[in-house]
Amino acid sequence: PDTLLALTGCMVEPDTAKLRKSFPFIDQFFKAGEYPPWLEKTEALSLPRRPSPSVYVTISQGCDNFCSYCIVPYRRGRERSRPMEEIIYEVRELAVRGAKEAVLLGQNVDSYGRDLPGKPDLADLLAELNNIDGLTRLRFLTNHPKDMSRKLIEAIAGLDKVCEQINLPVQAGSDEILKAMKRGYTVEQYLKLVGQIREKIPVVAISTDVIVGFPGETAEQFGRTLNLLSTVKFDTVHVAAYSPRAGTAAARELEDDVPTDEKKERLNKIEQLQERVQAEINARLLGKSVEILVEGRNKGKWYGRTRTDKLVFFSSGGDYTGQIVKVKIDKTSPWSLQGKIA
What is the DSSP pairing of strand 337-341 with strand 311-314? Predict the structure, then answer.
C-alpha cells in the first residue's frame, strides 16, 4: 500500500492533467530523461547488485529525424550520446556482477557518437564492448534505415559477441506514405539495405515495425506494404494502427482519414500474414540444436533466447539462470520453440 507508482516516457506531456485524469492511480509523472522530484539527481551510476542475465544499457537519448508521426524529438529532445568510456565502464561492471548480455538502447542507435569528440560510432563502441570479459552477447536497437552504415553491418558480421539480429523499421511499403512520414528513404533503398545485410550476415534475423492507416493511405498503398512483408519475410513484425499524437507534424498537417474499422482490418491482415511467415521460419529449426542464454523460469519451464532472438522453452532440473545451453528443438510455433537439453 505504501508503494509509489511513477510514469515516464514519451507519452508524458508537459501538462499532465489529462494523464492524471486517465490514470488516477499513478502518483508521479515525469518527462523522459528527467529525474522525478522524489529522487535526488546524482552523477554516480546506480547499478543493480545482481543484474538479470540480459541487461539494458542506454547509449543515447533523443532523435534528430523528426518523422512526421513521432513525438520523440519533442519529448526527449535532440540526440545526445553518452561518452563511450562511461558506457564501457557500466557494461564491464554489470558483467562483473553477473550479466551475460547487454542490449544497447537509443531512439536511433545509428546516430550514436555524432555529437562526441572524435565522433566514434556504434561500430566503434561494439568493438570495445566485445572485449569485455564475462560478457557473452551484445544486441542493440533501434536502427533507422537511412542512417545504418556499411561499417556497422561489417561489425555485426565480424564481432563474435554481437548477435545476428537487427531491428530495422520500414513503417510502410509505399514511397508516397514514406515521404508523408518523412522517413528519408524509398522502398528500393530499404530493400537494397536488407540485401546488403543478408549478403554479409546470411543467418541474420531481421525484425521491423509497420504503421497501418497512416493519413491518406489507400488500399493500393497498403497492398504494397503487404507485398513487401511477404517478399522480405521478416522474423518479427511489430504492427500498429496509426493514431495522431498531439504536437507532431502529422497531427497538425494531415487528416486522420482512414476509418478505424479499416485500420483494424489492415492490422489483422498483417498479423495473419506474419503468423504464417514466422511459422515457416521457426519450422526450419525443428530437430536442430540451438544455443540459448537462459534468462529465467516461467510456469515450470526454463526460457531463453537464441542469438537470433527466438524464444525457447525447455524443462530440466537444476538452476540454469545465466547459462548458455544447447537445446534440441522438438516443437515449433510462430511465437516460440520448445525442446530438450541437447
Answer: parallel
Quote the crossing angle between the two packed helices 150-158 and 187-200, to the nearest 10°.
Answer: 30
Query: Would you say 172 and 164 are in contact if contact means Cβ atoms under 8 Å apart?
Result: no
pTM score of the predicted model: 0.91
Q: Which three cell numbers stand for residue 326?
A: 544447447
Distance CA(200)–CA(300), nearest Å, equals 39
* Per-residue pLDDT reduced to its tens digit, 29-48: 877 767 676 666 555 568 99
Q: Is residue 110 part of a domain?
A: yes
Whether residues 99 and 186 fall in one domain: yes
- Closest-CA residue to 170 (of 239, 72, 267): 239
How many domains does one find in the chain?
3
**Of the candidates 248, 263, 252, the residue with the CA atom closest to the CA atom of residue 67:** 248
pLDDT in tens, 111-132: 999 999 999 999 999 999 999 9
Q: Are 79 and 114 in contact (CB under 8 A)?
A: yes
